[in-house]
């Protein structure tokens, strides 16, 4: 095990050290799906740099390529062409072990459908990534409970997902996403399956994480409430970036949204 | 900021055992159904095998009257052995075939309906081998218990059925050592077949990109 820890892959920053740190960078990313005889171009050349610590929302109608882009940023799927850099490391150059490490430690995922492991309790779901990261039982139980307390579910640690409401399940998913203190939290329509108030609570929670812990939050969404807390918004349309707006501009163009 | 990607993710065997066991326990109904499929197929095999074992043990000890009854019931010894005529071999082959198809089908279904769970595991940093290990262990538990239950059921039914046909001598000549041997074979066979059914879909699922596994319907 010790030998593996030392097998590091140093970064190869291509833009030079003077630029601000980009936690994610995409260059000319395309993704083509083949469905029978149909070829669907989900992404048609995306260039995007995401700064460390920002709260970025990816907005767009359904079918615009939002989720595909989300999967590219999260190293959950391979682009057809183009490159994805996470912390300036080219994801396509990583082997299976390094990819698993990246998913385990660097990135936390939150999904529209929660994707908790149904047969595991809340605490088991939250601690699974910590087990993969090699923590001892005492360590992961303590941290798991702490994370559940952070999302306000400390007393529900022993419940199965089926015994929790949608909002509670999404909180467990957030606690799980934070298991190994990732630099990036990726959320795919995190409020999509929740009612208005619960959705708002989740957004507030994500924003809190972003400001208090400096976690980069990247969220694919078409929930307008998200705009209010975002530092930047990327509008996707038909597989391309339609426009990219800073927060200040947003307020002018659409006013206060809440 | 030091930017490095390391390689170390682990899943200790203790955790694999716990996760696999819990996964079976929580899905008790589903796993019992799969295990019953296994048990029934193995019961058929054990029924055929143990029947011949009992006849072989009975034959030398039987008086000519009983031997005539055995032959009259349609059992044909080749030399002094039952179970090696072409008809017998065909029966055993068929029973195995039924077992294989039943078990592989049940395990294929069981893995396919868990693609999403596999995708989630991979998002959390699981290696392909973690996924395979969990499924292999689950299959081994199921194979072992299915084989044991099926073996016992098959042996019990064949003993009762031959006992009804030929009476007391079947019980007095009952061969315990051979029955134990058949039971062990039944367990081993069930474990192997159960693994056979699980390995392919588990490998396919483990190799999927997480995004693809997550997209699958549940």
Notes on the protein architecture:
The complex is a heterodimer of chains A (258) and B (218). Chain A is α/β, with parallel strands linked by helices and 258 residues long. Chain A has a single domain, classed as Rossmann fold (3-Layer(aba) Sandwich). Chain A contains 8 helices and 11 strands. Chain A has helices at residues 2-5, 66-73, 96-106, 122-132, 137-150, 166-177, 196-213, 247-254; strands spanning 9-10, 22-35, 38-51, 55-59, 81-86, 89-90, 107-110, 184-188, 216-221, 232-237, 240-246. In chain A, helix 7 (196-213) links the parallel strand 8 (184-188) and strand 9. In chain A, helix 5 (137-150) crosses helix 6 (166-177). Chain B has 218 residues and is mainly alpha-helical. Chain B is 79% helix and 1% strand. Chain B is built from 9 helices and 1 strand. In chain B, helix 1 crosses helix 6 (128-166), helix 2 packs antiparallel against helix 8 (176-207) and helix 4 packs parallel to helix 8 (176-207).
Measured between the Cα atoms of the first and last residue of chain A, the distance is 50 Å
Query: What is the subunit arrangement here?
Result: heterodimer
Order of helices and strands of chain A: HEEEEHEEHEHHHEHEEEH
Q: Class of chain A, according to the CATH hierarchy?
A: Alpha Beta
- The number of helical segments of chain A is 8
What's the count of strands of chain A?
11
Q: In percent, how much strand structure appears in the residues of chain A?
A: 25-35%
Q: What's the pLDDT, averaged over the residues of chain B?
A: 86
Radius of gyration of chain B, taken over Cα atoms and rounded to an integer in Å: 23 Å
Could you give a short description of this structure?
Chain A is of the alpha/beta class. Chain A is 33% helix and 28% strand. Chain A has a six-stranded mixed β-sheet, with helices on both faces.
């Amino acid at each position: 095990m010790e030998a593996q820890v030392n097998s590091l892959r140093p970064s190869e920053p291509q833009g030079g050290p003077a630029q601000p740190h980009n936690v994610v960078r995409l260059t000319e990313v395309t993704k083509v799906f083949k469905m029978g005889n149909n070829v669907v171009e989900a992404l048609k050349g995306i260039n995007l740099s995401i700064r460390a610590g920002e709260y970025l929302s990816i907005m767009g109608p359904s079918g615009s390529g939002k989720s595909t882009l989300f999967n590219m940023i999260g190293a959950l799927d391979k682009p057809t062409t183009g490159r994805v850099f996470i912390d300036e490391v080219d994801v396509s150059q990583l082997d299976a072990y390094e990819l698993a490490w990246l998913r385990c430690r660097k990135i936390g995922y939150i999904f529209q459908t929660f994707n908790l492991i149904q047969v595991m309790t809340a605490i088991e779901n939250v601690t699974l990534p910590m087990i993969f990261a090699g923590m001892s039982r005492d360590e992961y139980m303590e941290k798991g409970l702490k994370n559940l307390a952070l999302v306000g579910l400390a007393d529900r640690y022993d419940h199965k997902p089926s015994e929790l409401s949608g909002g509670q399940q999404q909180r467990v998913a957030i606690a799980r996403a934070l298991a190994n203190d990732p630099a990036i939290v990726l959320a795919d329509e995190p409020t999509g399956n929740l009612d208005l108030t619960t959705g708002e609570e989740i957004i507030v929670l994500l924003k809190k994480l972003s400001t208090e812990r400096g976690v980069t939050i990247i969220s694919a969404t078409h929930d307008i409430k998200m705009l209010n807390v975002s530092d930047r918004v990327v509008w996707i349309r038909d597989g391309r970036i339609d426009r990219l707006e800073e927060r200040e501009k947003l307020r002018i163009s659409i006013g206060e949204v809440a | 900021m030091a930017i490095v990607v390391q390689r170390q993710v682990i899943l200790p065997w203790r955790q694999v055992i716990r996760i696999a066991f819990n996964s079976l326990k929580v899905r008790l109904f589903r796993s019992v159904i799969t295990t019953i499929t296994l048990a029934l197929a193995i019961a058929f095999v054990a029924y055929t095998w143990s029947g011949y074992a009992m006849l072989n043990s009975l034959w030398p000890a039987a008086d000519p009257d009983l031997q005539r009854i055995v032959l009259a019931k349609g059992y044909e010894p080749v030399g002094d052995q039952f179970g090696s005529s072409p008809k017998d071999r065909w029966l055993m082959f068929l029973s195995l075939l039924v077992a294989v198809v039943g078990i592989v089908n049940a395990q294929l279904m069981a893995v396919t309906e868990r693609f999403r769970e596999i995708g989630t595991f991979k998002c959390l940093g699981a290696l392909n081998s973690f996924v395979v290990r969990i499924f292999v262990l689950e299959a081994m538990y199921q194979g072992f218990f299915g084989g044991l239950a099926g073996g016992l059921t098959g042996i019990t039914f064949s003993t009762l059925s031959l006992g009804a046909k030929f009476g007391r001598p079947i019980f007095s000549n009952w061969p315990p050592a051979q029955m134990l041997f058949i039971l062990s074979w039944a367990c081993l066979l069930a474990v192997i077949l159960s693994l056979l059914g699980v390995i392919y879909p588990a490998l396919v699922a483990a190799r999927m990109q997480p995004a693809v596994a997550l997209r699958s319907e549940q």
